[in-house]
Design brief:
The protein has 274 residues and is α/β, with parallel strands linked by helices. The protein has one domain (2-272): Divalent-metal-dependent TIM barrel enzymes (TIM Barrel, Alpha-Beta Barrel), CATH 3.20.20. The protein contains 9 helices and 8 strands.
């Protein structure tokens, strides 16, 4: 397995300095929040995208991919009844696939809970059918660009649409495109009373990425959860993709979060792998 850390906790540092720190700590990759490079990725030209890619490579880091896809610009939404909003959102998701490819990423993580929530009066079956078509269109674009668009199940405190890994897997089945798969978020699974290791085993055929995080919003080892089973499952399944740390509480500081998380990762890796 390979290990990465997200760039947004280093909000006060340059991207180059962020890469330097993560490489020095020992991470294999960096996962990008596109809004940290500009409000609208469509306005980031190819030269700047190439610079992002080279900066990571110069520090021996892989750009894993991108997440927090629909945060900016404001107004995007996956499930609104307004067709114009859905169309604009779909086009932006496809543009995000291009951005991911240009910066050297391989996976896109579709979380964005506020931008997919259902209204109380919406017909879930109708929304699901529309969403399948959107994801299929985006999955086809991802295939063309050589990236994988991954759906992230998020717990009921965050969203009311696609809340469990099983629901995400069923959506992947319905979309039925190689460029559209899913990922596993530890925090969301813990919050739903699920064991991430077992969820990885159940849905491994569609999982291309894993997030390591605690329900207290910090990194692995900075809360009460045991991540050893998830590392054991990764070893047993020969999971060769990234386990990537995504904290949400940045108050300890980016470098502290990255170092403490990596201590846990390194200890678990050494314990689990022969």
């Amino acid at each position: 397995m390979k290990y990465a850390f997200c760039n947004e906790p280093f909000k006060d540092l340059s991207f180059e300095e962020t890469c330097r720190i993560l490489s020095e700590i020992g991470y294999d990759g960096i996962e990008l929040a596109p809004f940290t490079f500009g409000e609208d990725i469509r306005k980031i030209d190819r030269e700047e995208r190439a610079h992002i890619r080279r900066t990571a490579e110069d520090h021996d880091l892989e750009v894993v991919g991108v997440h927090w896809l629909l945060i900016t610009p404001k107004g995007f939404h996956l499930t609104r009844e307004d067709e114009a909003v859905r169309t604009e959102t779909t086009e932006f998701m496809k543009a995000m696939c291009e951005f991911c490819s240009d910066v050297g990423g391989k996976v896109l993580i579709h979380g964005s809970p506020a931008q997919r929530n259902l209204e109380p009066d919406q017909d879930r079956k109708v929304v699901e059918e529309r969403t399948v078509e959107i994801f299929r269109e985006v999955g086809e674009e991802a295939e063309r660009l050589g990236v994988i668009y991954c759906l992230e199940a998020l717990d009921t405190d965050q969203t009311n649409f696609i809340e469990t890994p099983e629901e995400a897997y069923r959506m992947v089945e319905r979309v039925d495109r190689p460029g559209f798969q899913m990922m596993l978020d530890s925090r969301a699974s813990f919050a739903m009373g699920l064991e991430p290791a077992e969820e990885l085993r159940k849905w491994i055929t569609a999982i291309y990425h894993v997030h390591l995080n605690e329900t207290n919003m910090l990194g692995p080892g900075m809360g009460d959860h045991d991540f050893e089973p998830l590392f054991e499952a990764g070893m047993e399944l020969a999971f060769h993709q990234f386990y990537s740390v995504e904290p949400f509480d940045y108050s300890p500081g980016g470098e502290t979060l990255a170092r403490k998380s990596y201590e846990t990762i390194r200890n678990l890796h050494d314990k689990v792998f022969p």
